[in-house]
Specification:
The protein is of the alpha/beta class and about 500 residues long. It folds into two domains: about 55-265 and about 470-490, Aldehyde Dehydrogenase, Chain A, domain 1 (3-Layer(aba) Sandwich); about 270-450, Aldehyde Dehydrogenase, Chain A, domain 2. It is globular and about 80 Å long. The chain binds NADP nicotinamide-adenine-dinucleotide phosphate and magnesium ion (MG).
Length: about 500
Amino acid sequence: MGNLYELATTLRLPQQPVRSPMFIDGAHYTGSTGEYVVRKSPGHGVAVTETLRASAQDLDAAVAAARRAFDDGRWSRISGEQRAAVLLKAAQRIRDDVETLAWLETLESGKPINQSRGEIMGAAGTWEYAAGLARVVHGDTHDTLGDDLFGLVVRQPVGVVGIVTPWNFPFFILSERLPFALAAGCTAVVKPAELTSSTTLRLAALLSEAGLPDGVVNVVTGLGSVVGQALAEHRDVDMVSFTGSTPVGRSVLTAAGGNMKKVGLELGGKNPQIVFADADLDDAADAIAFGICFNAGQCCVSGSRLVVHRSVEEELVARIKAVFEKVRVGDPLDAANHVGAIVEARQFDKICGYIEAGRRDGAQLVYGSTSTKEGERFFIQPTLFRNVKPDSALAQEEIFGPVLSVTPFDTTEQAIELANGAPYGLAASIWTRDVQQAFGSFRRVQAGRIWVNCTITGGPEMPIGGFKESGIGRETGRYGIEEYTELKSVHVQLGKRARWIA
Ligand code: NAP
Ligand code: MG
């Protein structure tokens, strides 16, 4: 670790790829295939990490460990206070390890190093918040059922939870789910995206150091089509929490039907930035540029559709363009850059395909579209299209890249219709100085997360999740722990039961 730490603080590329085995039942595990997959940094084009490609048998071993750990009560039946103590220690371990975790995250994902540091520290705060919930979560009582009957509603951990995570925020998204599941008393099998598994594996080791009992958290790496699918289908898994694309989410929902698992899904978005004529355009321009450039637009809540009042469209677009001109895209290890690399060739080609389609469909390219593929390094400049037809691919589909489309409106009615006119409902931002307009709009916009005069901000106190095809369920906030519980209603007879047959 000392060696890695040194590398991290000097922000060099590793001399040889950092190899991480899986983590099952409290120990490193090399699996049945022994097949390591090399990950090249998308910001540098060189091999940086190696993780194992597991088989379905390896997944079985992990589920068996999680099942044993849940059923014998080593975690599920200890007190909330004891669970909170471990989660708080885990948070401290994460804070102490920020440099190495951030370095690995940047190498595998291509995101700027300062952003990685921010995400790791933010994630530590989420572990702390969840630790508090371990002592707060509780059920209910009903004293209104009559003199001879008393009702209790008990919240119990759902059991073994399978958690499948994407590559865009590997550590942060996991930290919006795993500590809440653990606070509830669940055990887990985590399947990170194959492109970005290293920080999840390192976290498993940190949790062990923090005192988490063996088998409570297990990490299996490899392909979603093999390990993720098997996890969603597994009959010994009680719940699956999936974060990723809507098509794969749909297949997880089907796979989970076998044993009627509880399902949590956080899927795609095509999130509107709604700007009314009275908005502070400077504030809006900066935030809108941030909202589409953050994580190179590879963010489920990226504000990718600008829906703007026609009277201020020209002015706002000019101001956004002025911000875009100052955005530095490049080496994610160089802290001066705002935007890093696109995660992989497939994603890069997909984004470039949408930019081409936008041009073909007659949208007006105002800024950007420059993409660079040097060897295996992938970068795309922020890109802005005007006159985007509301039913075109550019306006309807999740691009997952730094591409902003602009559609004007004339009336509030049209603004709401445009905002709600996509199959997704994950997030939306509303820009206005008029409190009536703000409240009137957020009540009608179909999205799980709304930002008024801000974007992509918040904390673990606030629940996240989607309307419509953006998912099922909520993560974080007090709802975040409740997601990982089952309700049991208990009826207690007081005194003698009235006879059925006298
Ligand atoms: P994805 O294909 O949905 O993958 C997300 C996770 O699911 C990964 O760990 C993946 O494994 C796994 N997976 C793949 N097939 C599976 C299956 N049949 N059963 C269970 N798990 C499976 O998303 P992606 O490839 O990372 O990105 C593709 C698109 O998803 C993006 O362009 C974007 O539109 C969307 N996306 C949304 C979010 C979000 O936060 N809402 C995040 C990331 C991506 P492997 O990839 O390792 O094989
Ligand atoms: Mg995939």
